[in-house]
Amino acid sequence: MASEPAQSIVWSDDFLIGIEELDYEHRRLVEDIDTLHRDLVADVEMNRIEDTLGRIHARMQAHFALEERFMLLHEYPHYPEHKAEHERLLDEYTELMTKFEREQNLDDLEATQDVLSKWIVNHILSSDKKMSLMVKSAKQT
Ligand SMILES: [Fe+2]
After folding, report:
1. Which of 20, 35, 45, 76 would staple 71 via disulfide (CB 3.0–4.6 Å)?
2. For each successive 10 residues of the chain (141 residues), what is the average pLDDT?
3. How many domains would you assign to the chain?
4. How far is the CA of 24 from the centre of ligand 1 (A)?
5. What local confidence, expressed as pLDDT, does residue 10 receive?
C-alpha cells in the first residue's frame, strides 16, 4: 500500500490578515495547494497534476505582485525584505515544479506539497500579518 501523502493545508480563519483582497487570494492559494494534495491522494493523471502545479505558480506570481503593489502604495518600510521573501519562495517553487516536470517523481511531489504548505502558512502568519498590522496602525496615526 502506498504511503499517505503529507497532510494537506486546510484554510483557517487564523490565516486572515484583515485586508480583504489579500485574504481572498490567500484563501484561493490554500485551496489550490489542497487540490494538489487531493490530486496526489486520488492518483490522477500527470497532466492534471501539471495543470495544478502551473496554476499554483501563476497564482503565487500574481498574488505576490498584488501584495508588493499594496506595500508600495502604503510605503511599507519592510518592503525590500518582504519582496525578497516572495522571490525566494517563487524561485524555490519554480525549481521544485521544473524538477517534477522533468522527473515525474511523485514522492518528490509529496515532499513539495508539504514544503509548500509550510512556507505559505509561515509566510502568511508571520510576514503578511506583520505587514498588515503595521500598515493598519500607520493609517490610524
Ligand atoms: Fe507576502
Report:
1. 76
2. 64 95 94 91 90 94 96 96 96 92 89 88 94 90 64
3. 1
4. 13
5. 87
Which pLDDT belongs to residue 4?
Answer: 57
Q: How far is the CA of 52 from the centre of ligand 1 (A)?
A: 21
HSE-up of residue 68 (Cα within 13 Å, Cβ side)? 14
44 domain-assigned: yes
* pTM for the model: 0.88
Ligand 1: distance of its center to the CA of 3 in Å?
33
Distance 117 CA to ligand 1 centre (A): 14
CA dist 29 to 55, 58, 73, 138, Å? 9, 10, 23, 28
CA 57 to chain centre: 9
Gap from CA of 115 to ligand 1 centroid (Å) = 16
**CATH number of 30's domain:** 1.20.120.50
